[in-house]
Specification:
single chain; alpha/beta; Acyl-CoA Binding Protein; three-stranded mixed beta sheet; 13 helices; 9 strands; 49% helix; 11% strand; globular; binds ligand L4XM7KOE; transit peptide; mitochondrion
């Protein structure tokens, strides 16, 4: 039986809900089949040789030649169906995670001594945050907000705390095109930052190494930030054709004054841990050699304080600001939705992905 338009639309929705990234090859095939099913044979001019992403998409679509629209639609539905049936949940249980709890591909979440630790776990990518990882962090925070722990800690595995947004997120374009991707990403960003704004317990960052981009901006929403003296704090938004997120356009001027915030958020000045501490973004800096021992000893002591009292104190300190923070978050996300489509941003991202530039 031929796939109907309804089957096709339902398959398009299922693609958005895939738990596992199917990889670039499959995504290109999905793109090509979608275009063929909706527009017929490739009718676009061939992109330039350095326009890697559009060239790969064009090649995939063009390779379908004169495949009839109905067959492309059927193949699209079959491909999505094979992806959804093969995405069985993994049975691996991360060390320390309670059985029955959520499992994560890009995080290690443990709960011990009254502390839930959420550790970014993509050390080979410097803990860059992929689309899936944004979702996992939100899930882990929501679970931590309801578990028995008194304090929640966010930290990184390996030599980096986090290198910010995974720039490969820009290559993962859905059938609706780049505008649709920007729209979805703005919603995801707003939800992600909103989860930090609303987090009800003391939230502590243990910054074990360099921090970049969104991993820095959201620090303004944490209740304490402990840093190794190896850590640096870098928000190179102008270099990337971007603008601030994570409510930093509001929290940073408040924390460090507008002039210092300008150096970080507009001129992209990278701060050492000592400088970030002097400017109030970091609570305390520790020598790297004793960082883990000193910080965890301290956190274990704090975790024994009465939990309700700590939650209520956090509410008293933060609640007056919540409405404002949500408004700032919505505005920053909507500005970025436009920025992501700008030449400045696309060129900077392409330069990184084609290995022509690093920060
Ligand atoms: C159409 C719209 C889509 C929008 C989707 C957006 C969704 C929400 C966005 C929220 C806003 C967030 C903004 C930010 O966070 S801005 C900051 C972004 N981060 C960067 O620009 C950092 C880029 N990385 C680097 O410059 C360097 O890798 C770094 C200085 C961090 C480390 O350099 P070093 O030489 O020590 O290490 P390597 O470069 O060799 O890194 C090892 C491998 O890891 C890869 N890597 C590292 N960071 C990232 C990253 N952020 N994104 C993707 N990949 C990253 C690096 O490429 C290396 O890979 P290979 O081994 O394959 O070469």
């Amino acid at each position: 039986m031929r796939a109907s338009q309804e089957d096709f639309e339902s398959a398009m929705n299922q693609v958005k809900l895939l738990k596992k990234d199917p990889g670039n090859e499959v995504k290109l095939r999905l793109y090509a089949l979608y275009k063929q099913a909706t527009e017929g044979p490739c009718n676009m001019p061939k992109p330039g040789v350095f326009d890697f992403i559009n060239k790969a998409k064009w090649d995939a679509w063009n390779a379908l030649g004169s495949l009839p629209k109905e067959t492309a639609r059927q193949n699209y539905v079959d491909l999505v169906s094979s992806l959804t049936s093969s995405s069985e949940p993994s049975s691996q249980v991360k060390p320390g995670a309670d059985r029955g709890q959520q499992e994560y591909e890009n995080l290690v979440v443990t709960s011990e001594d009254g502390i839930t630790k959420i550790m970014f776990n993509r050390p080979t990518r410097k803990n860059a945050i992929s689309t899936q990882m944004y979702q996992e962090i939100m899930l882990a925070l929501k679970a931590a907000s309801k578990d028995d722990s008194t304090i929640t800690v966010v930290t990184g595995n390996g030599d980096y705390y986090c290198s910010g947004n995974d720039l490969a997120n820009f290559t993962d374009i859905p059938p609706g095109g780049v505008e649709e991707k920007a729209k979805q990403s703005a919603i995801m960003l707003r939800d992600f930052v909103g989860t930090f704004i609303d987090f009800p317990k003391p939230l502590v960052a243990v910054v074990n190494g360099p921090a970049v981009g969104i991993s820095v901006t959201i620090l303004g929403l944490f209740d304490a930030v402990y840093a190794s003296d190896r850590a640096t704090f870098h928000t190179p938004f102008s270099h990337l054709g971007l603008s601030p997120e994570g409510c930093a356009s509001y929290t940073f001027p408040k924390i460090m004054g507008p002039a210092k915030a300008t150096e970080m958020l507009i001129f992209g000045k990278k701060l050492t841990a000592g400088e970030a501490c002097a400017q109030g973004l970091v609570t305390e800096v520790f020598p790297d050699s004793t960082f883990q021992k000193e910080v965890w000893t301290r956190l274990k002591a704090y975790s024994k304080l009465p939990p309700n009292s700590m939650r209520i104190s956090k509410q008293v300190i933060r609640n007056m600001e919540k409405e404002k923070l949500h408004a700032v978050n919505a505005e920053e996300s909507s500005v970025l939705q436009e920025r992501w489509l700008s030449d400045e941003c696309i060129n900077a991202t392409m330069n990184f992905l084609s290995k022509k530039a690093k920060l």
